[in-house]
Design brief:
The chain is mainly alpha-helical. 47% of the residues lie in helices and 7% in strands. Strand 1 and strand 2 form a beta hairpin.
């Protein structure tokens, strides 16, 4: 599956972890591995629009937001994401 195919499925609400001979790819919000992290549909649609429009800074900011949401499920330590806003 291509990343664009995975992205389309994720926007539609089907979080699929893509693991094949090329590697291992979570959904942008990691909901394929932890369903409680699923972003609202509006955020998924916005992320897809930004990604397809190649608006790198904006969709990368959303990736940092998704990562920030996932961290409390991984650790109870305070984590600073370099380049992120505190």
């Amino acid at each position: 599956m291509t990343y664009k195919e995975q992205l389309k499925m994720w926007v539609e609400g089907n979080s699929v972890h893509d693991k094949d001979e090329k590697g291992d790819q979570c959904c942008p919000d990691f909901s394929c591995c932890m369903s409680e992290l699923k972003a609202p549909k509006e955020e998924r649609e916005l992320f897809q629009q930004l990604y397809l429009a190649e608006r790198h800074n904006e969709y990368e900011s959303m990736l940092m937001m998704f990562l920030g949401r996932a961290l409390p499920f991984i650790t109870d330590k305070k984590v600073y994401i370099a380049g992120g806003k505190s």
